[in-house]
Design goal:
The complex is a heterodimer of chains A (407) and B (457).
Chain A: H1 2-19, H2 29-39, H3 58-88, H4 94-127, H5 134-144, H6 152-166, H7 180-191, H8 193-196, H9 213-222, H10 227-233, H11 238-243, H12 255-268, H13 273-291, E1 296-297, E2 304-305, H14 314-319, H15 323-330, H16 341-361, H17 368-400
Antiparallel strand pairs in A: 1-2
Helix pairs in contact in A: 1-2, 3-4, 3-5, 3-12, 4-5, 4-6, 5-7, 6-7, 7-17, 9-10, 12-15, 13-16, 15-17, 16-17
Chain B: E1 4-6, E2 23-25, E3 32-34, E4 44-46, E5 53-54, E6 59-63, E7 70-72, E8 77-84, E9 90-97, H1 119-129, E10 136-138, E11 142-143, E12 152-157, H2 167-170, H3 175-188, E13 193-198, E14 215-220, H4 228-235, E15 244-248, H5 249-261, E16 267-273, E17 283-288, H6 293-296, E18 306-311, E19 316-319, E20 332-337, H7 400-408, H8 412-417, H9 429-434, H10 441-455
Parallel strand pairs in B: 1-14, 2-17, 12-13, 12-15, 13-14, 16-20
Antiparallel strand pairs in B: 3-9, 4-6, 5-8, 6-7, 8-9, 10-11, 10-15, 16-17, 18-19, 18-20
Helix pairs in contact in B: 3-5
Classes of the chains: A mainly alpha (407), B alpha/beta (457).
Chain lengths: 407, 457
């Protein structure tokens, strides 16, 4: 191991001048820097008044998010295989499902990394900044929000939009207003809506459409049916949706892998527990409020049946659709979230509220969480502004208590 | 009336290289240097030339903006060299001691007598002797302006940053000088003089805990509970327009020594600590003021490349020992090994050897272990990404993220409203330490403070 390390160190020293100013590959310096810093920690020493530094750097922080996403990715691969065989009407064993699932999912992930990475490197070279580790997260987060049936060219177009318009035009990681992965998904959602929602698995069996429970539920609600009962009749019980062997986007169907990821993020301090808790509180409160809505209206003397989509218990909102995935992995992106700790609470609660408002009051967009997070990304600076103003007011009131010295 | 305050935010770095309490002597060796350049932002006019004879306490230089303020010589002898720095500023005056007892003395006071003395007399002696340079004023942390009476005076007797000297060791055997210095301070303000000590030292029963005529306060909790800004914030916070003066116990002792004996102080007690110092050499030294640092640390350092830091690990200045000497303001030095070692895949290897405050790394879960801290940056500079984590590493009522952003953007009015005037760059040292993006908060804050001072508010 030591010899290996020394060999690399020597080799790097040898080739480094090629990438410096005037060298043959001067333009590719960000590439050299990225692989150099990936293999070996930098030899730099501290400058300025503080002479020691913590062992954690941004690479580790970002990679922790990737690790937290792995349970979702693994489950997503298995589930993709399961759904594939389910809707093709073929009986298959566990390993066949895993293999088929990886065959479906891995190309999507690799396309996302390859195309997004290309943009990242291109911008780094042209802009002369280092390659940002933030892309490690975007590159895997984005595929997990896609249905497994998505075409690879759509993945490529989506990630290009996310990386370029969502991030690089603002100056790269740390400067973006919106979450790049979610921007990419939103682009596909509106540009290729048919491939992103509803009946995603072309079915060989009669009657099975592969629609997500969320999409079905919204439709049943519109017809005034008892949503939970109708879902159960089609095999979507609370526990089946909790377990996650359901059609849906790759990473979001199962609850347990998401909770595992949430635990990793919270314990390591990388993801904000304030945002996650706030989101759940907002969702529960709004869902309960929605339950109080009437299902029939007698305006004008005539009894009109209204949507029963409002009536589902709040626990269903956690297992249907991507709310948990969104609040754990997307909303907690510190760059696009509110930056103050009080602001994070408000930001989280409002995401929960807006998610339910979009889901329930506008069945045309059953997946409210994506829109809710993007909307709150835009609102985050305003939240921070008011938090800071309140802080200043509070500070001044506290300082005035000590006014004895001023007479 | 005394206050007891517990701070819950912050972090104590579990650092190897802590000193013992032994006090050793270093005898003068070679020429003595006086450094007018240690008083930042102040311009001096040199009053001596090469070959001039000076007495102990004799005048060497005069402040341009305050002509009553003189830089004085700690020894009697001949001026060997006058060294100029950038833009012909007066950097250093080297004096070859001739061993004579040629001594220029100052007025003396008794410990209790000074309480009946006139404040002007005491203040003018401090200005005249140049020891006013030991008194600092907040906001902006520069030399106290004698024309403005401070609303209160803060004396720091704590050592939470690794490794500031323990005030109780510094004050050992100097109780008269300490009490006289504290008494002198009570004359200089209409408000209280706060002496702030660590809660753990409450039972020490020494000249600090028993100090009279001042308000003795105790602070408990991790660093930065020992920072002067913390004390000011909890006891008498700075509202824009306020002036407070701040000193450390070592400064009070030196002022007391001058007022007690009338002789210009020529000895001071400093701490030499850190992993880069040989274990047997870690501890306190009584050294002549102005001694060359390379002589002070001779034979004390470990093998390998070491960094000598004036001040402490979190807020100090890296210096070249052959270029510098013991400043009047010095009370301690830390030596750390320069760490340029590269680790294979170190950015994700689960280290147990490098300390971290973030729970992502196994080392953050280990309790009661002392770590070796080198000077490595442990990663490269990136844009700030994680937010909201810094607030738990300051003891002041601050929102670090928005404040830093306001500073970077040059929004000085916002920064003032958010409380920057209560701070000193050293208060952000822990934020710099824990930042995964390796942001230098100290630099951002000090540049903003400089801008505010220049613009006025």
């Amino acid at each position: 191991m030591r010899d290996f390390k020394e060999t690399i160190e020597k080799k790097h020293k040898e080739i480094e001048p090629l990438f410096h100013k005037g060298g043959k590959f001067e333009k590719l310096y960000p590439l050299f820097e990225a692989q150099d810093a990936f293999l070996l920690t930098p030899p730099d020493t501290t400058k300025g008044m503080t002479h020691v530094r913590d062992a954690v750097d941004l690479k580790r922080v970002m990679f922790t998010v990737v690790v937290a996403l792995l349970p979702c990715l693994l489950w997503g691969m298995f589930n993709a295989g399961h759904q594939y065989y389910h809707y093709s009407g073929i009986e298959a064993g566990l390993f066949a499902k895993i293999f088929r699932g990886s065959w479906i999912v891995m190309p999507i992930v690799l396309t996302s990394y390859a195309v997004g990475g290309l943009w990242e490197v291109l911008f780094a070279v042209v802009r002369k900044h280092e390659i940002n580790e933030g892309f490690l997260v975007t590159g895997i987060l984005f595929p997990l929000t896609l249905p497994p049936t998505i075409a690879l060219w759509q993945v490529a177009v989506g990630i290009s939009f996310g990386v370029v318009v969502g991030k690089e035009v603002f100056g790269g990681t740390g400067f973006n207003i919106l979450n790049p992965a979610l921007t990419a998904r939103a682009y596909l959602f509106f540009a290729h809506a048919k491939d992103m929602t509803g009946e995603i698995w072309a079915s060989a069996k009669d009657g099975a459409t592969g629609a997500t429970p969320l999409g079905l539920g919204a439709a049943f609600g519109g017809e005034g049916l008892n949503v939970t009962e109708e879902l159960a009749n089609r095999g979507h019980t609370f526990w089946s949706m909790f377990g996650g062997l359901e059609p849906g986007s790759i990473g979001e169907t199962a609850v347990i892998p998401i909770l595992l990821g949430a635990a990793i993020l919270i314990v390591s301090g990388v993801g904000s527990w304030r945002i996650m808790t706030g989101g759940c509180v907002g969702l529960i409160a709004t869902a309960i409020l929605m339950n109080l809505m009437p299902t029939q209206s007698s305006a004008g003397g005539e009894v009109v049946q209204m949507t029963t989509w409002t009536q589902i218990p709040f626990l269903y909102h956690f297992v249907m659709g991507s709310f948990l995935f969104g609040i754990v992995f997307m909303a907690t992106d510190p760059v696009s979230a509110a930056s103050t700790n009080t602001g994070k609470w408000i930001y989280g609660v409002l995401i929960g509220v807006v998610t339910i408002l979009v889901r329930v009051t506008n069945p045309g967009f059953p997946e409210g969480v994506m829109l809710a997070i993007l909307f709150m990304n835009v609102m985050a600076p305003i939240i921070d502004y008011y938090v800071v103003q309140a802080h200043i007011k509070n500070r001044n009131a506290n300082l005035r208590k000590f006014s004895y010295a001023k007479g | 009336m005394s206050a007891e305050i517990t701070i819950t935010t912050g972090l104590d770095l579990p650092m190897e290289g802590a000193p013992g309490t032994e006090i050793r002597q270093r005898t003068a060796k070679g020429p003595i240097s006086v450094f007018p350049s240690e008083f930042a932002k102040v311009k001096f006019k040199c009053l001596v030339e090469q070959g001039d004879s000076v007495a102990r306490g004799g005048k060497l230089a005069r402040r341009k903006d305050l002509p009553e303020f003189f830089v004085r010589s700690p020894v009697a002898g001949k001026v060997k060299e006058v060294i100029l720095g950038d833009r012909r500023s007066l950097k250093e005056i080297v004096i070859e001691s001739d061993g004579s007892d040629n001594n220029e003395t100052f007025g003396t006071f008794t410990v209790d007598g000074i309480l009946r003395a006139k404040a002007e007399n005491v203040l003018s002696e401090l200005i005249d002797s140049g020891l006013l340079g030991l008194m600092r004023q907040r906001p902006f942390n520069h030399i106290a302006d004698p024309a403005v009476k401070p609303k209160s005076i803060f004396v720091n007797g704590m050592a939470t940053a690794p490794f500031r000297p323990d005030a109780h060791v510094l004050a050992q055997g100097k109780s008269d000088a300490l009490q006289l210095g504290l008494n002198a301070l009570t004359l200089l303000t209409d408000g209280p003089v706060h002496l702030n000590l660590a809660a753990s030292a409450k039972g020490a029963n020494d000249s600090l805990t028993n100090a009279s005529n001042v308000q003795v306060n105790y602070f408990d909790g991790p660093h930065p509970s020992g920072n002067t800004s913390t004390h000011i914030h909890y006891l008498d916070p700075i509202i824009p327009g306020d002036i407070v003066w701040t000193l450390r116990v070592s400064d009070v002792i030196r002022i007391g020594e001058l007022l007690l004996t009338g002789n210009y102080p020529n000895q001071q007690r400093i701490l030499l600590a850190g992993e880069g110092v040989k274990p047997e050499a870690r501890g306190y030294l009584d050294v002549p003021t102005g001694m060359r640092l390379s002589d002070v640390i001779a034979d004390s350092l470990q093998e390998g490349e070491q960094r000598l830091i004036r001040g402490d690990t979190l807020a100090g200045e890296a210096i070249d020992p052959s270029e510098s000497g013991i400043y009047l303001y010095d009370q301690g030095f830390v030596v750390l090994p320069e760490d340029t070692e590269r680790h294979l895949l170190g950015w994700y290897a689960p280290t147990k050897e490098q300390f971290s405050a973030h729970k992502v790394v196994p080392s953050a879960w280990i309790k009661d272990k002392l770590f070796s801290f080198g000077t490595n940056t442990r990663g490269s500079r990136r844009a700030m990404v994680l937010t909201g984590i810094y607030d738990s590493y300051t003891s002041l009522d601050l929102l670090v993220d928005p404040l830093t952003r306001a500073c970077i953007a040059g929004e000085t009015e916002d920064a003032i409203a958010m409380g920057i005037l209560e701070t000193d760059p050293e208060d952000f040292a822990l934020c710099t330490f824990i930042c995964p993006s390796k942001t230098d908060f100290g630099k951002i804050i000090s540049e903003a403070l400089a801008l505010i001072e220049q613009e006025g508010f």
